[in-house]
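Hi Q.,

Before the meeting this afternoon, I wanted you to have the LARABZUK prediction in hand. No need to reply - just skim if you have a minute. The sequence and ligand are here:
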Amino acid sequence: MTLDIKICGLKTDAAMAAALTGGASHVGFIFFAKSPRYVEPAEAGRLRQAAAGKAKAVAVTVDATDAFLDEIVAKMHPDMLQLHGSETPARVAELKARYGLPVMKAVSVSEAADLERIKPYAGIADRFMFDAKPPKGSELPGGNGVAFDWRVLAGLDAGLDYMLSGGLNAANVGDALRLANPPGLDISSGVESAPGVKDPALIEQFFRAVRAARDDRAA
Ligand SMILES: O=C(O)c1ccccc1NCC(=O)[C@H](O)[C@H](O)COP(=O)(O)O
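Predicted structure with the ligand bound:
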């Protein structure tokens, strides 16, 4: 089974190069002003050029207005939108029609019952991201470096397309793969030396850990 890996919150050429060298299938750019990972749409458009033909460029937004999304799409040319706010199924459908881009809808999870929330998006969202709920007091809906109990994902329909996200790092990614066997992984804080500062060495280490875990499982 192929495993997609999204490195999220890229802001520098060095981090982008490390993500692509490692074999990222997706690279993410954050368009949420309060985030330490925020990039201007035009800068994301410059950075994403390195990924052309190698990885899909994902624009991460939070309840964004049409005007801001228009700017992002015009300047960054994303391959996919990641909606990380409280976008309704109707809003997801509207944005898919407006931009003709696939949409990954983020859903925050702390227990199995939270997975029920994907039902109204069936046939609308192209993919889901299961991320941890933000800790109390956090201003960020994502990128908090906290994990949820991945075992709740084990009972999902085998055909469901999603990324497991939240609190991943080189030390725990093997457990995530073993417990949930997800079709995709997403990571941000776990490859940073400080909030918003991606560390190419940690990115390389993460990919090495993923490969080692997959080799172990295949053996
Ligand atoms: O990363 C952010 O700062 C962010 C801000 C606002 C909305 C979403 C955000 N990140 C979305 C992602 O896809 C992150 O990679 C995901 O939440 C996992 O983050 P982490 O737990 O730090 O690995």
